[in-house]
Amino acid sequence: MRRPSWLSGRRCADPWLYLPPLDLRSLTIEELRECVARQGEPPFRAEQVFRWLHGPGPGGVGSVRALDAVSNVPRSLREALLAEAPLQPIRLDGAVTAADGTRKFRFRTHDGCAIESVLIPDDKPERAKLTLCLSCQAGCAWGCTFCATATLGFGRHLSAGEMVEQLYWGMESAGCKPSNVVFMGMGEPLHNLDPVERALRIFEHPWGAGLSPRRLTISTAGVVPGIDALAKIQPAPNLAISLNATTDEVRDRLMPINRHWNIAALLAAARRFPLAHHRRITFEYVLLAGVNDSDMDAARLPRLLRGIPSKVNIIPYNPVPGLPFERPSAQRALAFQNAIRLADIPVYIRTSRGSDAAAACGQLAARADEPLLPCELAALAKTGRAS
Questions:
Q1: Strands 91-97, 103-108: pairing kind
Q2: Which residues have a catalytic role annotated?
């Protein structure tokens, strides 16, 4: 394995070659059973270990930090499992809270990567909904020109265990299970599909968080082979596609991935994606002033989506220092929404959340060398998780 670019500060030449580290929290229950069988232990030992790693415990769901605490599993088995797949926990490196209640966490992986996740309360408190946005990679390889994460380059893929731990940190901080988990943080989920699929299976397992697939969403910039692979997962999570343009010329400039799979290829994959009754594909459209927010764009978008059960999330740009894009006016965003609504497509303007907490993807990790004065760190330290 090559030296990761996050150590050298250079963009990775071939990110497809990087493999995430193997750790015990990444193993599915079936894989744990195989590990236990190789040690000559009965199958019920796998359930014991899995429940310790992912189920409710003294410190919350998935709170065990070392197998030394697993007193009902033989020491020889614990040592054998850790030799094969050691625990490689992430640690909290800082947290900030925005005025609207959005909480953003910066973590460090065992090898020093800065990653982040965000807890986002609903903008209508009476609905009592909470969304966790997590990362699947350290940095990103696809170079979207408006994205803060893209400025970091690609570090490495995260393991399923590192994604799972982000969920457990979020649950511990919130004191409850999130209503929705979205893979919309740092990285491209379909570029790291095997660990993402593992994480989905662990999230859904009744011995762990027990999340419904309908509460899990994978967002992609447009990795067409990955969309086709995701379609084979049963039950399938929700699919969100970051479209952000209505012509290949503009999308090529905004999202270099479009030069691999253009809009026509991407929408063909969306049409192939199997959807259960009443389910829709979400198309995310980051609205950039003077770039993709014209009346012509608003007229073209419904024509592109014709025949696809879909909804559109308009996301007025959250400005990133150093990037040459601006947020459109509220009037322009509303006019764009109304034009799409006339085509009988569900369309929503997503309220910007956490802008005073560097909530745009990658902004907090980009400040990886800056110490934070974390709002939640002291409280989390009381649980032993912040050590």
A1: antiparallel
A2: 116, 361
